[in-house]
Amino acid sequence: NAGVTQTPKFQVLKTGQSMTLQCAQDMNHNSMYWYRQDPGMGLRLIYYSASEGTTDKGEVPNGYNVSRLNKREFSLRLESAAPSQTSVYFCASSERAHTGETQYFGPGTRLLVL
Amino acid sequence: RKEVEQDPGPFNVPEGATVAFNCTYSNSASQSFFWYRQDCRKEPKLLMSVYSSGNEDGRFTAQLNRASQYISLLIRDSKLSDSATYLCVALSGGYNKLIFGAGTRLAVHP
Question: Among A98, A100, A105, which residue's Cα sits nearest to residue A27?
Fold first, then answer.
């Protein structure tokens, strides 16, 4: 039982490049989330998917797109990376959204945009 | 103003000490509260939920004061392994999403 997995662990991009961060969970959770964590800012919600087939914007969605590929997988895409997107990205999942149920986090992806 | 605010610390305490962190929240409609723990360069993990009546889990005690809009975490008999960042989290009353504080760093030394 791996929980929540993320790939890659580290990535360096040049400004304007694109990439997709992958996330998968094996807990049969309905809801999945993407956060970014910056020093002094706390975790901020980028996008979430309350259930398979739905996605919604969070607090900081600009510059990102998401795809809920199936119940297990939720990907985050940066179409044209900017230095302001340098951050640590965490994927999380929970049984249901909007209830405060425990969210389980993946190990994170450290992204540097030059 | 941030919706959830914490003192960033660090709190440097010796083993065996008692340490307390406070956290304030601005949205009076916030419904539920939690403490998450995050080790250095790792993912956050739920430490405990915070109930209105206060609750205890071993050496950890969480309290909620709705009138003053703050929550607290008390750690008794600190261990070296308690060194981490503690994240205060509120379930936002506005749109039912988790709002994370920036965290309070605790360093326990021998």
Answer: A105
